[in-house]
Amino acid sequence: MKMFSPEIERMERKEIRAMQLExxxxxxxxxxxNVPMYRQRFDGIGLKPEHIxxxxxxxxxxxxxxxxxxxxxPFRLLAVPxxxxxRVHASSGTTGKPIxxxxxRADLDGWSTCIARILAMAGATEEDIFHVAFGYGxxxxxxxxxxxxxxxxxxxxPVSSGNTERQIMLxxxxxxxxxxxxxxxxxxxxxxxxxxxxxxxxxxxLVCMGAEASTAEMHEALRTILGAFPTExxxxxxxxxxxxxGECREKAGMHINEDMFYPEIVNIEQNRALPEGERxxxxxxxxxxxxxxxxxxxxxxxxxxxxxxxxxGRTTARMARVVGRTDDMLIIRGVNVFPSQIESVLMAMPExxxxxxxxxxxxRYMDTIxxxxxxxxxxxxxxxxKLEELVAKIRHRLRVVIQLDVKVKLVEPFSIRxxxxxxxxxxxxxxx
Length: 432
Ligand code: DLL
Prior knowledge:
Layout: H1 6-9, H2 13-34, H3 36-44, H4 66-71, E1 85-90, E2 100-104, H5 105-121, E3 129-132, H6 140-152, E4 155-157, H7 164-173, E5 178-181, H8 183-195, E6 206-210, H9 216-226, E7 229-236, E8 241-247, E9 254-256, E10 261-266, E11 280-286, E12 297-303, E13 305-306, E14 318-319, E15 324-325, E16 330-332, E17 335-337, H10 339-347, E18 352-363, E19 366-375, H11 384-402, E20 407-411, E21 426-428
Parallel strand pairs: 3-4, 3-5, 5-6, 6-7, 18-21, 19-20
Antiparallel strand pairs: 1-2, 7-8, 8-9, 9-14, 10-11, 11-12, 12-15, 13-14, 16-17, 18-19
Helix pairs in contact: 2-3, 5-6, 7-8, 8-9, 9-10, 10-11
Bound molecules: 5'-O-[hydroxy(phenylacetyl)phosphoryl]adenosine.
5'-O-[hydroxy(phenylacetyl)phosphoryl]adenosine (DLL) binds next to helix 6, strand 7, strand 8 and strand 12.
């Protein structure tokens, strides 16, 4: 599989670290000199850019959080005057003010390089026709992928999100070979194509997903239905959008674009750095961003890192699939549960459809958790015996994985509402 930037993707670890140190020292000084928030933070604790002499010294720098971005809304974290900014994006946050990001021309160029690398490692070439079903707009997904696809030299069909049946028509008529969507929307498109009887007419061989958590079981289910190779990439608006890391054909973690992002994993409660392989919160520092450099951003995403070279030949650090966000973790009767644990059980059962929702409540001081999941075949719902048996099987498997007794409700295919962007699977009535 051809690498887009072999000189970076195959660097020796020693060289990567040397490059990261040089860039870190530069970006720290740059942020200190150009962003008042960083200067105040540093001055407040007597930290000077020249105190950052080794990569380990990064721990001296205070974290940046979502609140810092909100407090400096919309553009106070920019390190350049507005005339140098050529694009602005913002998070799709549904409540309150969004998080913004400003890009210089060089930032856009670096961003599309990150995406082109990720698409190439997923197996895409300039021969591919990409159907982009991520929303185009303030969301970083649509435009982010768009320019990366162009940089790779493949063809881009900027469909954006919405109107699912029309998407199927375009997928078919334009002969798209690659689909870009959130995992939940990719699944919805696949189910719809199946329902319309056009699955066989589609030429999609690659599904490039991202923007929300997905499980290995979800990837497998998509591979089975669509007959296409699923890969994912990770990113967030705060550090520029998609393209921070992406999966190669080995699907053994997501390769981090380490020349542009410096990753750390920290223990959430104790705020201390964790060694390779341990799971904690991902913290990211942008190493090259001119428009909005971000130092030690607490992503709230839970993952782990490995620095082992990959079988694909790349040497860049890999992050494991994100199990969830610290703020998505449910605490039910004292037990920590990530929605992805529930998903992995449901997606592995062929009797079940691929859409589900989780409802958490508190009844007489006691937390309850209920899973609603569609069955694959509606006839099952008329067979009481089989239904009971399936519910018992799901409850048993969930108990093994999350150690909780879960109420399970099986519902008709297509009865749970689909979303075209990021899916919201959990309703926590305790918080309402
Ligand atoms: O979702 C950027 C993106 C667009 C990434 C398209 C990949 C593809 P935000 O809207 O700011 O940006 O949301 C960022 O989404 O902190 C994660 O919690 C979640 N997320 C993104 N990618 C993944 C992934 C975009 N591959 C937030 N797996 C992040 C799990 C993901 N979670």
